[in-house]
Design a protein that fits this description.
Blueprint (H helix, E strand, L loop, with lengths): L1 E4 L3 H12 L4 E5 L6 H5 L2 H22 L13 H26 L2 E4 L2 E4 L2 E4 L2 E2 L7 E4 L3 E3 L12 E2 L13 E5 L3 H13 L2 E5 L10 H10 L4 E3 L3 E7 L9 E8 L2 E6 L2 E4 L3 E3 L4 E2 L22 E3 L10 H15 L13 E4 L3 E5 L15 E7 L17 E7 L5 E8 L2 H13 L20 H16 L1
Parallel strand pairs: 1-2, 1-7, 2-3, 4-18, 7-19, 9-16, 10-11, 10-16, 11-12
Antiparallel strand pairs: 4-5, 5-6, 8-17, 13-14, 14-15, 20-21, 21-24, 22-23, 23-24
The structure holds flavin-adenine dinucleotide.
The site of flavin-adenine dinucleotide has 35 residues, from helix 1, strand 2, helix 2, helix 3 and helix 7.
């Protein structure tokens, strides 16, 4: 018997692989539903919110250009949005339950505490044999910074956001990463006055052009970099159980109090290892695994966000399958070096191995060159041409070999394009490889053009 603790992307994919190999598998999931954060609080929820926000944004553009008659402004009902999104989540929960059922996976609802190899479900010891194996896939949870007043009503995080009843008038977002940026865009389109407060730079380490595009898509959002939220206050002070009404910000020696009727904490994720005893953890609480996903305890493996590597669904899924293969004694596939990721705003801003000013993936002897072009107009960006903003794409190329080492693409469909490009980069994509590439037109994918252009420029340089 193999026990998988946690029914998120890592746990589900591992369990399905193991069951299809003929193993007896059970998933123990505390929330009562399979799908993990991705479905309950993360990717799917942000996707639903972003779709609504982008449609409002597109409507506003069409109104501004006179293509649509200026009618009454569209408003978002948060209560209806959550109701509809909840119904969609319920449909997907059923699909996942059905899949588990068909695969022959037993699903148990309960909270696990692990002490070495001993599994306790809601405090009761589970009988196991010595040959049984365990996979820890307990994922991660939002980091809540220690700020005075953080427990006030009206302060949300990705796990509690679905209790926000109205579009806030003045929204404060704490955090400067991808999730913070996505919430900032969404709520600015919903009509909130949004202030983003980040301890360091906004979208730190992301490609410079991506940051430029992101800021362009949220012109009304006030971004306070290198600023701390010192205190959140209600009308009765920060120790009360009242609703948040203001925040005290501190930047250098300056203090400022700004109004806010809601706060979203988007300060990153932390591995969920509180219930694990006797399992070796690193300083961030991530379970330490070797290259076969084995922990320090014999027969106990770990995969997904709990390993603290990359907090992304496809990565968690891939690790889950790799850990399952390891449990079965099969060769474990190499996890790719090139990991594509997106920030979803009006456009999708996809990047891979391309941080601002970085030398990621750079080995001795490689001479990196960067090229960029505006993205072409096409579906999803044609009505932005009048704003002179169709997005942008950039590549990093090793000038000696012509191998593409990094990409950034801000365009409506960049998530799909970027994922294939990352795959090709893993296979050592060269600027010469796109010579006979035929695109579908009209498309907003400017990357293939850029790769062709990179070839022309590098060839000129070497002449
Ligand atoms: C707001 C937000 C937006 C995101 N957007 C994206 C995105 O656009 N794209 C992307 O790729 N990724 C995104 N992510 C990240 C993605 O959701 C995670 O990387 C992914 O869900 C990790 O999968 P996992 O299986 O490792 O863990 P999780 O999804 O966290 O699942 C772990 C499961 O284990 C259960 N569990 C935990 N402890 C116990 C216990 N003791 N006993 C029993 N069960 C337990 C939990 O209830 C949960 O169901 C986002 C995350 C958030 C929060």
């Amino acid at each position: 018997m193999i026990t998988v603790i946690g029914g998120g992307p890592a746990g589900r994919f591992a369990a399905t692989y193991l069951a299809s190999a003929g193993e007896k598998v059970r998933i123990i999931e505390k929330s009562g539903n399979l799908g993990g954060q991705c479905l309950k609080y993360g990717c799917m929820v942000t996707c639903g919110l972003n779709d609504a926000a982008r449609n409002l944004n597109q409507l506003a553009k069409l109104r501004k250009s006179g293509v649509l008659d200026a009618g009454a402004d569209a408003h978002v009902s948060m209560q209806n949005l959550w109701k509809e999104l909840g119904a969609i989540q319920n449909t997907i929960f059923k699909v996942l339950d059905n899949e588990a059922n068909l695969a022959g996976i037993e699903v148990i609802t309960g909270e696990v505490s692990l002490a070495g190899r001993d599994i306790y479900i809601n405090g009761a010891l589970l009988q196991q044999s010595d040959a049984d194996k365990i996979l820890i896939a307990t994922g991660s949870y939002p980091i809540i910074p220690k700020i005075k007043g953080i427990d006030l009503k009206g302060v949300y995080n990705p796990h509690t956001l679905q209790s926000l009843k109205e579009v806030p008038k003045d929204l404060l977002i704490i955090g400067g990463g991808v999730i913070a940026a996505e919430y900032a865009y969404i709520f600015s389109q919903f009509g909130s006055n949004v202030t983003v407060v980040c301890r360091s730079a906004f979208l730190r380490d992301k490609p410079e052009r991506l940051i430029y595009c992101a800021r362009k898509e949220m012109p009304d959002v006030s971004v306070r970099e290198y600023t701390l939220v010192e205190e959140l206050k209600s009308a009765e002070g920060s120790d009360s159980s009242g609703f948040v009404v203001s925040a005290v910000l501190k930047s250098g020696k300056n203090r400022e109090e700004i109004p806010c009727d809601a706060v979203i904490v988007a300060s990153g994720l932390r591995p969920r290892s509180d219930n694990l005893k006797g399992i070796a953890l690193d300083d961030n609480g991530a379970v330490i695994v070797d290259d076969r996903f084995r922990t320090n305890v014999d027969g106990v493996y770990a995969a997904g966000d709990i390993t603290g590597k990359v907090f992304l669904t496809p990565y968690a899924r891939m690790q889950g399958i790799a850990a399952a293969k390891s449990i079965l004694g099969e060769p474990v596939p190499k996890i790719p070096e090139y990991i594509p990721q997106s920030v979803k705003l009006f456009y999708e801003h996809t990047f891979c191995n391309m941080s601002s000013g970085s030398s990621e993936g750079e080995k001795a002897g490689e001479t990196m060159r960067e090229f960029s072009l505006p993205a072409p107009a096409g579906p999803g960006s044609i009505w932005s041409v009048s704003e002179r903003y169709t997005g942008s794409s950039s590549i990093r190329v090793d000038a000696k070999s012509g191998t593409v080492k990094g990409i950034h693409l801000s365009s409506p469909s960049s998530g799909t394009v970027g994922a294939y490009m990352a795959y090709l980069m893993e296979k050592s994509l060269n600027v010469k490889d796109f010579g006979s590439f035929l695109e579908v037109h009209p498309s907003t994918d400017g990357l293939y053009m850029l790769v062709k252009y990179g070839d022309t420029l590098l060839t000129k340089e070497t002449k």
